Amino acid sequence: MRRTTGPTALTAAAAAAAATLVLTAGCSSGPTHPEGQGTPSATAPASASPRPQLPPAQGSVKVARTVTDGLKSPWGIAPLPEGGLLIGSRDDGSVVRVDTATGKKTAVGSVPGVAHQGEAGLLGLALSPTYASDHLLYAYFTTESDNRIARMNYDPQRPEGQQLGAPDTILRGIPKGSIHNGGRIAFGPDRMLYAGTGETGDRGLAQDKKSLAGKILRMTPDGQPAYGNPEADSLVYSYGHRNVQGLAWDGENRLWASEFGQDTWDELNLVEPGKNYGWPVVEGRGDKPGYVDPVAQWKTTEASPSGIAFASGSVWMASLKGERLWRVPLDATKPLAAPEAFLGGRYGRLRTVLAAGTGKLWLLTSNTDSRGTPRPGDDRVLELDVT
């Protein structure tokens, strides 16, 4: 399969002016610069030369309403088919159900064994692809010894706070750290479970195919290597990642992932099985044989990307340090127009974005994660109307 290279992302002002497209990369930190707190480089690397100009994107985002507020250290969201959202708290391991019509929060229960430190804790949530019959909730979380994935029965008919069954661990042994734990999980169109992991600050793990760190993993719902993986006995789907926190599929069932860089470039990648995404040899676009270049990249101040979603022909990317929502209009495997930023600074750090039906998104803020400046009502879920 061909290597994917793409143009860089404009700042919002440059996009509006349709100026020369120069990628402004966003990064999160290295071991001394935690998630969303990286420091921008004084100069861009020579390899990051300007790419051909793209026309400015022309979309719109309107905040329709606040769905709920008063959330503490929220991270993962799982939308329920019967309506409502399950939202996990990174720091205390609890899960609440939010009624999206009224905003009412109901305590569901807690995931046992969650050990919060720094960026670690209860991270991604996902529903089983056969949820209608098995009512299983999957969770990616940090313990005292590792990161792991477990599944639990969710029964809303049980008493409040007691609606989660005992966890059944399907995967353990993902390296943990106080930083770079990855944590996003999602079931793909193939009904397999994908997980984005981080390299925990130990850079070499990203290139070590025997390690589960710094990877995108692909597994069966029982946690076994999925048929069609690059190596039959391995969960590793792609490698050379620093800290993957966003996974989404487009209308052609292609997998996209957002990734924190260190001090120079944050990335949006089109993910192909068995490919090497460069870290720590390459950060951002390096044009080096053997490594896949990002489709788009951003400066630290503009991104630090976490969750992504595909909706209305675009990848939407929530940014932590950048405090804005990015839209990347797609045409096949490349941007159709310059990436476009919305909501800059209005709601602080943005953690997770989800498609919520035609022309709508749910957006989760992240200001109570110890890195933001909480405002009255933080954290919250917003409903957006987008075009």
Give a nutshell description of this structure.
This protein is an all-beta fold and 387 residues long. The chain has two helices and 26 strands.
Task: Give the distance, in angstroms, between the N- and C-terminal Cα atoms.
Answer: 32 Å
pLDDT averaged over residues: 89
As laid out across the biggest beta sheet, the strand order is 1-18-17-16-15
Structural Rg = 19 Å
Point out poorly predicted stretches. 1-32, 38-50
Helix-residue proportion: under 10%
Structure description:
It is a single chain. The chain is an all-beta fold. It has two helices and 26 strands. The strands form six sheets. A five-stranded mixed beta sheet has the order 1-18-17-16-15, with no helix packed on it. Strands 19, 20, 21, 22 and 23 form a five-stranded antiparallel beta sheet that branches. It is globular and about 55 Å long.
